[in-house]
């Protein structure tokens, strides 16, 4: 079958393209401004890409048009598909109907930590020799790609498929959350906060979508959830028909005291199962690890094997990824964009570097942040940083609808706002000194600011 994917360079749709190609389908796709790294990854797999959404693409004669949620009514190609009465579906629905049905799906949902926990889980299963399929919203450094289709399940058995289960809506014609299409047997619910202000009016609306997810998990399935999350408690109080395993303080799975090098013991009840020896810092990473271990156990992976795997876990691209060090200044890249994620990311780096200075460089560019729904939470989220540099474009699709200088005023002289990227880079380079840690946080490309900062720091050294 020939699939033509609209919005193919998004992380999910690009991963779906790789899965479909591996399943034997002919795959082509299009996007606005076809861009790397996904475009490069797709082209290497022999997937033809078209820049733009011109209506003439219906001339490709695809058997099915798979529509990403970046596509809206008024899109020229989508309008042509509708006018011609051609068959179309959403990415999540195609995946659920054509790939996931014969597999044991392990879905990782939650406001924060989905990509990292999915990566940990897939890494554990691979380390255990289970050859999992996976589709993750980032690139696990241990696995090398964001998506892979494992061997076809043997007759009468189910292969394993790890998927990052996003609560964002499915498509312009299907406003349910993506994850309701996945029908997992193992579900990790990491946490739940208000997000996606562009599609959800309040937290209660997101809780309803999570309730719908819980309704799809069979009685023989397992839900892994933290012991103390008020929103998830409300979700589960509306109905839970599956096994429930709790993690964290008060739960069945807990992390013991943290050593100076970041290692920690894993406890299940009163039993110590082993020690995760890694360099990753932050309570959030330990919570993600516990969830991954509990989920892997549900499909038969002994916790000691999982602990061994996590001790070798490298991480995920754009999750506290060190991009370089120049004249003693380390520059990191992180995907954090929600205030809670920003706070936990800064806290994790603080745990690692102690009293060294942290220079936080932030681009609030998610739809929620651009709307200003959480701007009041930013000062508290950034309290642990020594200096804050915030970039907010005044024009274009990423323009902020609010004044970052006003929002960050509670931080006083520690915080500065910029609407020109060159000026921001120059000021960060001027402020940085030997021993500092520059933490760049954005869910976009941020104008290549990491390379520009490293180049500016290198220029200052000459």
UniProtKB/TrEMBL annotation:
Q: Name one GO biological process term.
A: regulation of cell shape
Q: Boundaries of each Mur ligase C-terminal domain copy? A: 318-444
Q: Which SUPFAM superfamilies match?
A: MurCD N-terminal domain, MurD-like peptide ligases, catalytic domain, MurD-like peptide ligases, peptide-binding domain
Show which residues constitute the signal peptide.
none
Q: Does the keyword Cell division apply?
A: yes
According to UniProt, the reaction catalysed is:
UDP-N-acetyl-alpha-D-muramate + L-alanyl-gamma-D-glutamyl-meso-2,6-diaminopimelate + ATP = UDP-N-acetyl-alpha-D-muramoyl-L-alanyl-gamma-D-glutamyl-meso-2,6-diaminopimelate + ADP + phosphate + H(+)
Gene3D superfamilies referenced in this protein's UniProt entry, alphabetically: Mur ligase, C-terminal domain (3.90.190.20), Mur-like, catalytic domain (3.40.1190.10), NAD(P)-binding Rossmann-like Domain (3.40.50.720)
Listed binding positions for ATP are 110-116
Q: Name one Pfam family in it.
A: Mur_ligase_M
**Which residue intervals define the domain Mur ligase N-terminal catalytic in the entry?**
2-100
Give start and end of each Mur ligase central domain.
Answer: 108-296
Q: Which InterPro entries match?
A: Mpl, Mur-like_cat_sf, Mur_ligase_C, Mur_ligase_C_dom_sf, Mur_ligase_cen, Mur_ligase_N, MurCDEF_pg_biosynth
Instruction: Give the molecular function GO annotations.
Output: ATP binding; UDP-N-acetylmuramate-L-alanyl-gamma-D-glutamyl-meso-2,6-diaminoheptanedioate ligase activity
Q: In which pathway does it act?
A: Cell wall biogenesis; peptidoglycan recycling
Identify the EC number(s).
Answer: 6.3.2.45
Domain of life of the organism encoding this protein: Bacteria
Keywords, A to Z?
ATP-binding, Cell cycle, Cell division, Cell shape, Cell wall biogenesis/degradation, Ligase, Magnesium, Nucleotide-binding, Peptidoglycan synthesis
Determine if Cell cycle is one of this entry's keywords.
yes
- Cofactor or coenzyme needed: Mg(2+)
| Family affiliation | Belongs to the MurCDEF family. Mpl subfamily.
Function, as annotated: Reutilizes the intact tripeptide L-alanyl-gamma-D-glutamyl-meso-diaminopimelate by linking it to UDP-N-acetylmuramate.
PANTHER family noted in UniProt: UDP-N-ACETYLMURAMATE--L-ALANINE LIGASE-RELATED, UDP-N-ACETYLMURAMATE--L-ALANYL-GAMMA-D-GLUTAMYL-MESO-2,6-DIAMINOHEPTANDIOATE LIGASE
Q: What is this protein called?
A: UDP-N-acetylmuramate--L-alanyl-gamma-D-glutamyl-meso-2,6-diaminoheptandioate ligase
